């Protein structure tokens, strides 16, 4: 009898132990099933600097050209990996005047600030004005056509232009001009103001609409708009001839102006967060003696949080390419004049 009790107790103990083990397994399995799977880590690759070769039509490669040395892309953890895909909140262009590429790029003595931007962000090695003198280039940048090649031109232009496209999709714009005598002024040269450097003032969309004309403002408004988080979607920025390298004894005047007036934009959080903005600094034309491709070899620099870092391109570009590029980065899908068929410059943006 004692032996039978022992066997009975042993069987009961085994049953209890087996139940405990089963319960434990079930509990662990349930908890594991309730935990979400962890996604594998993905290593994001920085874009490599391509080599360029081929024909030399605008928007195609012309091979490597000389210029400043360009550092390797920033592979640090903080480097921006955001693709712009035409979603910049604002685009801005600042105009310099009448300078050859070789006089600016690599001239770190006279142009340290602009060269630092070119090295840090991106620049075009083969950028050309379309014509001499200035007027035609400003029209190509904003209307995609050479409406006139005379700097004395003052007629109203009724043709298609960037203002018309911005209005059509509800985008805001301003032309910030040094020495503009008053808001909405569309007249001729006066007291340091140069009419033919201010292309948006010619268009019928502005001259015949008093509300749109209010977007022609003195440059002093730029600092106020930046401080008040009130920059428009599209800005055309025009220094006067004492600041844009046109009439200075040394090109450093433009570099000093950029450092004083544009560096606050570059450092502003509204601009330098992903999708915050794209800044183009360029020149209307090269020196008048350089007639390569019509307006000569000049400078083009792109700055912004979504611009590729330490990047340069040997692709040939001109003013109509810039017009298309700025429009695309605002999300526009139609473009005035020759910009409609111009090659995109999206190679300068991350994700491309």
Kindly describe this structure.
It is a single chain. With 352 residues, this protein is α/β, with parallel strands linked by helices. Helix content is 31%, strand content 13%. The protein contains twelve helices and nine strands. The chain has helices spanning 2-34, 101-104, 112-120, 134-143, 162-168, 204-207, 210-213, 220-227, 252-261, 263-266, 269-272, 319-329; strands at residues 91-96, 122-128, 173-177, 216-218, 234-238, 278-283, 297-298, 300-303, 311-317. α4 packs parallel to α12 (319-329). It is globular, with a radius of gyration of 30 Å. The protein starts with a helix and ends in a 23-residue tail after the last helix. Mean pLDDT is 84; it is low at 23-57 and 61-84.
Q: What is the topological layout?
A:
Elements: H1 2-34, E1 91-96, H2 101-104, H3 112-120, E2 122-128, H4 134-143, H5 162-168, E3 173-177, H6 204-207, H7 210-213, E4 216-218, H8 220-227, E5 234-238, H9 252-261, H10 263-266, H11 269-272, E6 278-283, E7 297-298, E8 300-303, E9 311-317, H12 319-329
Parallel strand pairs: 1-5, 1-6, 2-9, 3-4, 3-5
Antiparallel strand pairs: 2-7, 2-8, 6-8
Helix pairs in contact: 4-12
């Amino acid at each position: 009898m004692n032996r039978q009790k022992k066997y009975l107790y042993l069987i009961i103990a085994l049953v209890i132990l087996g139940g405990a083990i089963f319960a434990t397994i079930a509990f662990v399995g349930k908890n594991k099933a309730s935990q979400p799977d962890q996604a594998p880590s993905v290593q994001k690759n920085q874009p490599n600097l391509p080599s360029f070769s081929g024909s030399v039509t605008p928007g195609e490669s012309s091979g490597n050209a000389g210029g400043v040395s360009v550092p390797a892309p920033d592979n640090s953890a903080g480097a921006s990996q955001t693709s712009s895909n035409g979603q910049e909140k604002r685009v801005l262009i600042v105009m310099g005047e009448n300078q050859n590429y070789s006089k600016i790029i690599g001239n770190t003595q006279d142009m340290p600030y602009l060269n630092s931007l070119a090295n840090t962000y991106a620049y075009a090695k083969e950028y050309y004005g379309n014509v001499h003198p200035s007027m035609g280039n400003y029209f190509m940048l904003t209307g995609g056509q050479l409406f006139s090649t005379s700097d004395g031109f003052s007629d109203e232009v009724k043709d298609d232009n960037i203002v018309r496209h911005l209005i059509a999709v509800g985008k805001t714009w301003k032309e910030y001009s040094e020495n503009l005598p008053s808001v909405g002024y569309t007249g001729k040269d006066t007291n340091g103001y140069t009419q033919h450097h201010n292309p948006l003032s010619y268009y019928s969309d502005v001259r015949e609409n008093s509300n749109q004309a209010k977007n022609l403002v003195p440059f002093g408004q730029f600092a106020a708009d930046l401080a008040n988080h009130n920059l428009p979607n599209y800005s055309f920025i025009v220094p006067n001839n004492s600041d844009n390298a046109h009439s200075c004894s040394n090109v450093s005047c433009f570099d000093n102006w950029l450092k004083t007036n544009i560096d606050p934009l570059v450092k502003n959080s509204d601009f330098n967060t992903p999708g915050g903005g794209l800044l183009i600094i360029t020149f209307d034309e090269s020196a008048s003696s350089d007639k390569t491709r019509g307006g000569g070899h000049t400078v083009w620099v792109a700055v912004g949080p979504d611009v590729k870092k330490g990047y340069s391109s040997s692709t040939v570009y001109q003013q109509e390419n810039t017009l298309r590029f700025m429009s695309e980065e605002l999300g526009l899908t139609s473009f005035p004049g020759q910009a409609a068929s111009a090659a995109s410059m999206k190679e300068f943006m991350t994700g491309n």
